[in-house]
Amino acid sequence: MGRLYIALLHHPVLDREGRVITSAVTNADIHDIARSAKTYGVKRFFIVTPIADQADLVRAIIGHWTSGAGGALNPSRREALEALEVAGSLEEVLEAIAREESGPVRTVVTGARLGGSCVSHGQLREILENGNGPTLFIFGTGWGLAGEIIESSRYRLEPIYGTGTYNHLSVRSAVAITLDRVVGRKDSRVRK
Amino acid sequence: MGRLYIALLHHPVLDREGRVITSAVTNADIHDIARSAKTYGVKRFFIVTPIADQADLVRAIIGHWTSGAGGALNPSRREALEALEVAGSLEEVLEAIAREESGPVRTVVTGARLGGSCVSHGQLREILENGNGPTLFIFGTGWGLAGEIIESSRYRLEPIYGTGTYNHLSVRSAVAITLDRVVGRKDSRVRK
After folding, report:
1. What is the pLDDT of residue A188?
2. Cβ atoms A15, A144 nearer than 8 A
3. pLDDT confidence bin for A189, thresholds 50/70/90
4. Closest CA of chain A from B176, distance in Å
5. Are B166 and A191 in contact (CB < 8 Å)?
């Protein structure tokens, strides 16, 4: 399996009416997703926002927890936030990955309402296990990724369902479950 | 499988030095865990705090999103928060469950640092599939559940590991992954 990357997009995403907006960065997203990424061996987690003030805010949070007072107090949080980076757009993320990797980037969009030709979590696990190039998981905030992001991606991952039809997880929970299903230990669901 | 319940304890839990404390209720915990609970068919999610002001705060949040303005604006959040309840202690939670259920409650403690005789997620799935009484998952905030809670529980669930040794997930992510592993669809990890 090649290296894994995550991008959390704050633009272009949808609002509840389906309009393209830029959403605000959320502190809980930064910490929760950084910790899940570290748990599942993700190489880098990009927070994507085109708003300079928001990008500065994220950099200040990273600084506090990596080189600042927070890191000394809480080493496990420092470890998680060391893999965090800010980017202005998905293109910038792809350029950053291309600088470190030789092959093409396998892009995977996620979303609670994705339709069309989706791969299941099990199928994606197989694709990753049988390949060795880098993979970028793209998650949206607000009411999900804009159509242009979905259409430009190599794979669409099927929405997460639990036991029924309700699928309104937070993006933090969706990232955790997605990573566990696609790259988690295979035996975690069966008797050992 | 019998009905499922979740309790999120704010007391007695540990601080970073291992002292027993009462932690503050977090808004992201309420919403994220309520949405995960609804996704995986959990009957009720109890926020447990002995502090009356904190309990009132949670009730105000529930009111806003169920009967107030928030519920009209965001029906999926209303659906999730309708299963939320406040309790003053774990004993109160067990009493509330006993009023609705006939058999004994199967208690399951969780934690990133649990040792001793733990059941795996796969083993717990089997136990639940072969039984029909109610099951209560107990999650801690702060630096984890106090020893008295762990010792009084019927089962200890093994800590969640991803691909390495880092296991510092947020409790919100841990609840999501636990539910997906123990009660999620079996085929979500294998090719369909």
Report:
1. 72
2. no
3. low
4. 6
5. no
Given this model, what pLDDT does residue A69 score? Answer: 84
Say if residues B167 and B161 touch (Cβ distance below 8 Å): yes
> How many interchain CB pairs under 8 A, A with B?
167
- Whether B73 has a pLDDT exceeding 70, the answer reads yes
Model pLDDT, residue B182: 97
Q: What value of ipTM does the predicted structure carry? A: 0.96
Residue B13 C-alpha, separation from nearest chain A C-alpha, in angstroms: 18
Q: Which residues of A touch B45 (CB under 8 A)?
A: none
Nearest CB among B77, B160, B166 relative to A38 is that of B166
Distance CA B124, CA B158 (A): 10
Residues 6 or more apart from B39 whose CB is under 8 A from it? A160, A161, A162, A163, A164, A166, A167, A168, A169, B179
Confirm or reject contact between B4 and chain A (CB < 8 A): no
- CA dist B51 → A8, B6, B23, B92 (Å): 36, 19, 10, 14
Residue A44 corresponds to which tokens in the numbers above? Answer: 């880098």
Measure Cα distances from B80 to B33, B55, B71 in Å: 9, 18, 10
B14 min Cα distance to partner chain A (Å) = 15
The verdict on a CB contact (< 8 Å) between A122 and B189 is yes
